[in-house]
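wait is this the right file?? whatever heres the structure
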């Protein structure tokens, strides 16, 4: 990542970190990648295919649910299987140390982590959403769970970002676009560049 420290004209004196970009005509821009401090949980702001059922004394985690405990959840999932549906379920572990992190894998930290619930997918719901299964459906369910848990983990860790795009004209910079709510801070991976048309990152050696 190219890092600059530059006094800009708009809107005030700032220090920016990000990427130089150029359009097809060679005109330069700068993509300022900035932390998104105002973001809703992806468990409420997005359509999810998995269900996260958590219990915690201090934190409101995962999805809203009415299960009293893990035994009640286990019994309900067994009922779904008895009625002909298929269930793919994984435990959820929380690490609470200088911030929160969640995973389907044990953090192996006896003091600051533990199991807080489970995340599951129902085959019937995937089929209703349009999925077809040429191979083992559990591979699809596993991928969905991994992706959605990773996104929720990024939300809990504060790894959510936005950008402001500046057009450069000599020593003058003008903010021409902005967008927020990207998970992960690399615009080449998180979808930011997909919002920027034909702009492409200028390699460090060409800056």
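ok assuming it is, sequence goes like this
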């Amino acid at each position: 990542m190219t890092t600059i420290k530059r006094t800009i004209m708009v809107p005030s004196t700032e220090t920016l970190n990000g990427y130089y970009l150029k359009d097809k005509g060679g005109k330069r821009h700068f993509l300022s990648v900035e932390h998104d401090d105002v973001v809703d949980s992806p468990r409420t702001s997005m359509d999810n295919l998995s269900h996260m059922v958590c219990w915690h004394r201090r934190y409101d985690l995962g999805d809203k649910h009415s299960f009293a405990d893990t035994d009640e959840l286990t019994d309900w999932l067994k009922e779904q299987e008895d009625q002909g549906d298929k269930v793919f379920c994984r435990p959820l572990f929380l690490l609470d140390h200088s911030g929160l992190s969640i995973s389907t894998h044990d953090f192996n930290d006896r003091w600051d982590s533990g199991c807080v619930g489970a995340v599951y997918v129902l085959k019937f719901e995937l089929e209703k959403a349009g999925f077809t299964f040429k191979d083992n459906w559990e591979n699809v369910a596993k991928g969905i769970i991994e992706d959605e848990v990773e996104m929720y983990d990024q939300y809990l860790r504060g790894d959510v970002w936005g950008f402001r795009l500046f057009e450069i004209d000599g020593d003058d910079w003008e903010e021409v676009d902005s967008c927020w709510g990207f998970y992960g801070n690399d615009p080449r991976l998180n979808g930011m560049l997909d919002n920027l048309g034909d702009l492409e990152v200028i390699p460090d050696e060409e800056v």
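The chain has two domains: 18-38+159-206, 42-157. so i think its the right one actually
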